[in-house]
Amino acid sequence: MSELRKIERALISVSDKSGLAEFAAGLAARGVKLISTGGTARFLREQGLDVTDVSDVTGFPEMMDGRVKTLHPKVHGAFLALRDNAEHVASMAEHGIEPIDMVVVNLYPFEETVAKDDVSLEDAIENIDIGGPAMIRSASKNWRDVAVVTDPRLYAEVGTELAESDGSLSLETRQRLAALAYTRTASYDLAISSYLAKQLSNEDLEYLEPLNPLGGLAFFEMDDDELEETELGSPPYEGGVADASSDGVVLSEYKLIELSKITDLRYGENPHQRAALYEADGDGITGAVQLQGKEMSFNNYVDADAAWNLVQDLEGIAVAIIKHTNPSGVGTGANNLEAYKRALATDPVSAFGGIVAFNQRVDAAVAASVIEVFSEVIVAPEYDDDALEIFSSKKNLRVLKIQDQRSRTEGHPLEYKQISGGFLVQEQDVHQLDLNELNIVSDRKPTDAELRAMDLAWTVCKHVKSNAIVFANEHQTLGVGAGQMNRVDSVRIAAMRAERFELPLKGSVVASDAFFPFRDNVDEAAKFGVSAIIQPGGSIKDDESIAAANEHGIVMAFTGIRHFKH
To answer: Which residue stretches of 262-313 are H helix?
Structure first.
C-alpha cells in the first residue's frame, strides 16, 4: 500500500444507518474524532459515542428544516484543502478550518421515495439531497487526502484496512472510494432527472430543447420519398406501410440510462464471458421472483424475456415455448393444458430444454404435463399451490413469477441495442393488429376462422427473428421459419417443420413479418395448401403477389405494418 493517510477526523451524515453503529465505534476506538448532523448525531450518541455537532464546527445552526447544515466553508474547506499546499494550509489556519480526513455519507432516499405509488411531488422534492452530494463531490475531488464512504457495504473492507494499517487508508483505496462516490452521485442525479422529466409533457420537453442541449429532442420521422426508398416502392393502396411519426416517444439528444446491479451471473452467453444482471426500472423479467430452481443464466434471462413478451401479446389463454429466443411453438385453448399441448405439438423436439411461458395462472393439470418434457424455465403471472408442488419434483427447474404487464402497450417504452461504440434506441414494437383495419387485397375474402388464424400467426410472427414466416391455424402455430437470409427459404423451413410432425397445412394461413418481394413466396406457400396470407405489403411487385394469390384462390391481407426483429 502506498501514500497512507491517517484518519483523524470524520464527518458522518447518513440516511441509511445500517451497520453504522459498529463502523463508527471502530473509528472512535482508533481515536477518530466524529462530527455529525441532526438525526445521525443523535443515533451515534445513543450508541454511547462522543460526537461533535456540525453546527459547532461551522458556528451556524442547522436551519430551514435541515435544508442548510453542511453548506459552509469550514466543512468544504476541510475537504478541499490540499494538505501539501502551503497556501491552502495557511488559509485553513487563518480561517480556523480543521481538516476532515473521512466523509461517511449516504443520501436521502429519493429513489425509494419516488418508487412508492402514492408519492407526491412535494415528498419527492423534500427527498432531494443537496448537502450530501455536495460533500461527496468536494471530498472526492480531494481523494488524495480524503476518504469518502458512500455505502454501508463498504464499511467492512474500510474497517479492515484501518485496523491493518494503524488507522490509515492507502492512496489506491481512497481513489477507488472516490470513483464509487462519483458513480453514486451520478446515479442519484439521474434518478432525479428521470423523475422530473416524467412529470413533464412532450410539449414541455419540446419547449426546453433550445434552452438545454441535454434536453434536445429527435423524432423518428420518414417522409414519402424515404418510405418509397426504404420499401422499394409505393404500395398500391392508400397509406402504404405505416411510418413512425412525431406523435410517438421523445428521444433526447443525450440519452442517460440508469442501471442498478442486481447480481453477478455465473457467465455470459458462453462460459468464457463474464456477465451480470442490471435493472433499469424493475419491470419485466428483471423484476420476476424466482420461486425455485437453479440460478438463472444469461441465456435463461434472454429466452425468458422473449417468451414472456410473446404471451403478453396474446389474448385469452396462451402458451409459448421458446428456444434460442424464437418460438418453437405457440398454442391457445380453453385451458392451459389444451394450449400447452398445442404449443408442444408444433415442434416437440425443439421444445426440449426450452422456456415455457404462460399468460394465465398455472394449474396442476398443465404442470404435470410440462414436467414430462425437460424445460429450463417456467414463466407465469401466478401458480396454484398444487402446480408448485409438482414443479418442486424437478429441483433444477427454474420457476419465475412475474407481474402481468399488458399495460406495457400504453405509452412508448424504449429498447436499446448495443453496437460497437454506442447504442441504438427505439420504441418497443407494441403494435397490435386490428382485424377491422386489414386491407384485403385478394378477390376472395377471409372467413372468420381465417381471420382468427391470421391474427395468431401475425402476432407470433412479430416475435420471430427475420426473415420470419409462420404457418398457423386459429389455435396454434404449425411451422416456424426464422432468421433465414431469404424469405422463400423461411417458407420452406416452416413447412418442413410442420410436415415433420405431421401437422396439416392444408387450409392453414401464413404470416410474413415483411412484404413479399416476389410472387415466388406465394407460389411456394400454395404448394402446401394454405388458404390465406397476411403480410405488410409495400413491395414494388405487390401486384404480382396479389395476382398469384388470386390464381391459387388464396386470401391475401395487407397490414401496412412491418415487424422486423433482428
So the answer is: 298-312
Domain map (residue ranges) of the chain? 5-198, 202-252, 291-405, 431-558
Query: pLDDT (tens digit, 0 to 9) for every residue of the chain, 566 residues total?
Result: 468 888 888 999 998 899 999 999 999 999 999 998 888 999 999 999 988 888 878 766 666 666 666 677 778 888 878 788 888 888 888 888 888 899 999 888 888 888 888 888 888 888 888 888 888 988 988 888 899 999 899 999 999 999 999 888 998 988 889 988 888 888 888 888 878 777 765 555 444 444 443 333 222 222 333 333 333 333 433 344 555 544 555 565 556 666 778 899 999 999 999 999 988 776 789 989 999 999 999 999 999 999 999 999 998 999 999 999 999 999 999 999 999 999 999 999 999 999 999 999 999 999 999 999 999 999 999 999 999 999 999 999 999 999 876 544 445 578 888 889 888 888 888 888 999 999 999 999 999 999 999 999 999 999 999 999 999 999 999 999 998 999 999 999 999 999 999 999 999 999 999 999 999 999 999 999 999 999 999 999 999 999 999 999 999 999 999 999 98
Please, what is the angle between helix 20-29 and helix 155-164, to 10°? Answer: 20
291-405: CATH number: 3.40.140.20
**Beta strand 414-419 pairing with 422-427:** antiparallel
Catalytic annotation, pick one of 33, 141, 394, 565: 141
Looking from the CA of 356 toward its CB, the CA atoms found within 13 Å total 32
- 141 catalytic per annotation: yes
Phi, psi of 264 (to 5 degrees): -75, 150
Residue 124 neighbours by CB distance under 10 Å = 17
Report helix, strand or coil for 60: coil
Q: How far apart are CA 369 and CA 365, in angstroms?
A: 7
Q: Which is the catalytic residue, given 324, 341, 401, 431? A: 324
Topology annotation, domain 431-558: Cytidine Deaminase; domain 2 (3.40.140)
The torsion defined by the Cα of 224, 435, 335 and 348, in degrees rounded to 10, comes to -50
Q: Given this chain, do its domains 291-405 and 431-558 carry the same CATH topology?
A: yes
Q: How far is CA 211 from the centre of its chain?
A: 30
Q: Is 37 left (phi over 0), alpha (psi -120 to 50) or beta?
A: beta
- 324 part of the active site: yes
Name the region of 282 (left: φ>0; alpha: ψ -120 to 50; beta: rest): left
Classify domain 5-198 by CATH number.
3.40.50.1380
Pair 265, 374: CB distance under 8 Å: no
